[in-house]
Amino acid sequence: MKDFILSINNNKLYISAAIAIIGIIVYEIIKKTINKILEKDKQRNKLDKKGRTVVKLFTNIIKYVIIVIVGVLILQIYGVNVNSIVAGLGLVSVVAGLAIQDPLKDIVTGVNIITDDYFSLGDVVKIGDVEGKVVYLGVRTTKIKDIANGNVLVLANRNIDKVIKISDEMYMEIPLSYEDNTDRVIKIIKNALESVKKHENIIEAEYLGIDKFADSSINYKIKIICKPENKFFARRLVNNILKKELDKNGISIPYPQLTVHKGE
After folding, report:
1. Distance between CA 28 and CA 175 in Å, rounded?
2. For 96-107, what is the HEC assignment?
3. CATH class of domain segment(s) 169-248
4. Among residues 24, 170, 201, 225, which is most buried (max CB within 10 A)?
5. What whole-number distance in Å separates Cα of residue 9 and Cα of residue 122?
6. Domain residue spans in the chain?
7. 0.70 cut: is pTM over it?
8. So what's the pLDDT on residue 29?
9. Quick one: pLDDT at residue 5?
């Protein structure tokens, strides 16, 4: 009798393992199929950022659905009546109990991010002190790659409550001396921007005008348009080209000076 019971338990164990393996195989097949579709779409460009994000989110949802199905099947193999458990607790009490759980909050927030168009895969956003590119958006977590240092921030979706989506426009001020001829300075800046525009990562570079009369300088304003993830590179490029152009024309950038009066 003991051997018979042991045999039954072993069979249940094998069947449970088989169900879990089948679930993993099914998920991997679905994931690979979706990834192939996304790879082909890179050439056709039929899906926009939001569409690709929805597809990725759908893949994550499938994963959790398979986990639930596998779990229910294994419970039933061991004689656990799942229906009676749900009926006993009551549907309302089950939903109310789940609503206060962090995983469900993550899922609800993840869906809201997509439907309300907070951001999509590939967008550059600022969350807290981190400004980076969205490299992963799942039903429970979001990953942001910091464009300043390459670090990856992993956030539970429930903790995302305020997001700034970074545009492709960047504004810079160039402080120059009051003594320099304004028309000549503007011409030098425009010439420098022509060189900036030749770089492949720069979409547009435009002189806007005099922005401010500061204490020790006139601040000239320019606008650079580039992909948000390239803005740090663009800033360094503009600074480098402008400095060389100013040096070539004998114009120096003013800096605060402290005048010390010697007492008699």
Report:
1. 57
2. HHHHCCHHHHHH
3. alpha beta
4. 170
5. 49
6. 169-248
7. no
8. 85
9. 46
